[in-house]
Structure formats: C-alpha cells, structure tokens
Amino acid sequence: MRHSHRRHAGLLYVLPALLFVAAFVAWPLLQLLRLSMTSASMLGPGSFVGWNNYLKAFRDETFWQSLAFTLQYTACITPILMVGGFLLALLVAEPGRIARATRGIVFLPVVIGLGSSSILWVGLLDEQVGLVGRLLVDLGLVAHPPVWFVDAELGMWAVIGTVVWKVIGFGMLLFVAGIQSVGIDVREAAMLDGAGYWQRVRHITLPLMTRTLLLTTLVSVIGSLLAFDQFYIMTAGGPRSETFTSVYWIYQNSFIYFKQGYGAALSMILLAIVLVLSSVHLLIARRGAPA
C-alpha cells in the first residue's frame, strides 16, 4: 500500500514535465511527421503523398551539398571551440580578480544574440569600411582588404571566426566548472608525486572531466549542425549556393519556395542525423566516462 502511494506520488511530481514534453515536443514532432508526408505549401494544405518527399530528398543534390557543407563546417569549428575553450579555462580556472575579469570578458559575447553579432561582423569585415581588413593592411599581412564572401571557403572561415568569438566563452565556462570539480587533494597528491603541470592536466584533469568534454562536444556539434543565422546574414548562401547549410536549405524550401511538406521532410532527415549523433554520444558517455 505504501509502495503504491509512493509510486503515485512520484508520477504526480513528474506529471508537469511529462505534459510539457507531450505538448511542446511529442505533439509538434507528430505534426511535423504528418506534414512531411503531404504536398502542403503556404498556399494550401496539399494532399497526402506518403514517402515521396523523402525519396525526393535523397535525389536532391542541393540538399546533400548543403549537408556536406554543414558537416565540413561542424568538423572545422568543433575542435577550435573545444581546444580553445579548454585552454582558456586552464588560464582562468584559478580564483583571483584577474581570472574572474577575464572570464567575464570572454563570456560577454555569449549574451549577444547570434543575429546581432553576425550583423556586427558584417560591418567589421566589410572590404571598404571594415576595421578587420584595414587592420590586416596596416599590419602588412595583406596588400588589399580581403573580400571575405566571394569565395565559399574564405567565407566559411570568416563565419567560423565570428562564431568562435561569439560562443567560445560558453565552452570555457563549462570547462572551468569541470576543472574546479577535480578535488584539490587529488592534484596535491600528484604534485607530491612529482607530476608537472601538463602531466596533471593530461593524466588527472582530462580523465576526471570526461563527461564535461562529451557534453561540450555534443552541444557544439548540434549547434553547428543547426547553423542558420550566421550564414543567412553574412553569406546569404553564396557564392553560387555553396554556403547553404542544411537548415538554410530547409528554410528556402519552406518559406521561399512555399514547399512546407518537402521542408518538413528535410527537417525530419536532419532530426534523424542529430538523434543518431546524440545516441552515439550517450553510448560513449555511458561506456567510457568514469562514474
């Protein structure tokens, strides 16, 4: 009787969360799946087409090109965010006024909206009046201010630089929390055993913050796979649609070409990719991370 009462009490505690997930996650996903099997557009509800939208997606060269570019962007920016965030965390993890001030300065861009920061950097990177190009010329690194967005690769690296400036403080903060969670007694014991600073980082700090590393990697990868604002504002998908990300192509189909059914199918495919990556992350975390 008492066990049954506790079980029902537990269900009551989690009921608000279950209702929230059902209303704002499960139901919208079901509606998205239903929409992906229709020819719906902004001009009308369309008709049921079954799996035709998914078959069309597998023949869509632009979608696969955008997905390849998104994966390339993710593969480039994730190591920069991880290594850079960790090194910054090592610099500011110790208590002190300078460390706290540095953490605040590095974290400050995180609170700026991605759209706002992208607009800011469009001005800074402008080849005629931009501060970055003029600074490169004054330092003698280039003869003329670079035109950043006429080449897909150069444009991607320009976007990567701006996004790193924007979000690296978030990873730094997570890493600082992971570093500070390592017990002082463990580090002191290693010092007494003669371990140098980088030996302690490699053999003690990193293994004990594996979960933090995996979490930060997952957040970075998912955020990069869903990149849209920065490319929409800074490159507009150009040149020649070479900087279309997956979400950008979904946006184009859904709201420019009015193919909402097809856009929903592309969204479901991207969702499946994100779920696979998340599942791999959880499997690695469960098997490899220390308890």
Low-confidence stretches: none
Distance between the termini: 34 Å
Give me the strand/helix succession: HHHHHHHHHHHHH
- CATH architectural arrangement: Orthogonal Bundle
Structural class determined from secondary elements:
mainly alpha
In quaternary terms, these chains amount to: single chain
The total strand number stands at 0
Rg, rounded, reads: 24 Å
How many separate helices? 13
Give a written overview of the molecule.
- The protein has 291 residues and is mainly alpha-helical.
- It is built from 13 helices and no strands.
- The protein has a single domain, classed as MetI-like fold.
- The protein is 74% helix and 0% strand.
- It starts with a helix and ends with a helix.
Concise summary:
The protein has 291 residues and is mainly α. It is 74% helix and 0% strand.
Feature tags:
13 helices; MetI-like fold; mainly alpha; 74% helix; 291 residues; single chain
Which helices and strands occur, and which strands form pairs?
Elements lengths: L1 H35 L15 H7 L2 H32 L4 H11 L6 H11 L6 H8 L13 H29 L3 H9 L4 H12 L1 H16 L3 H6 L11 H11 L3 H29 L3
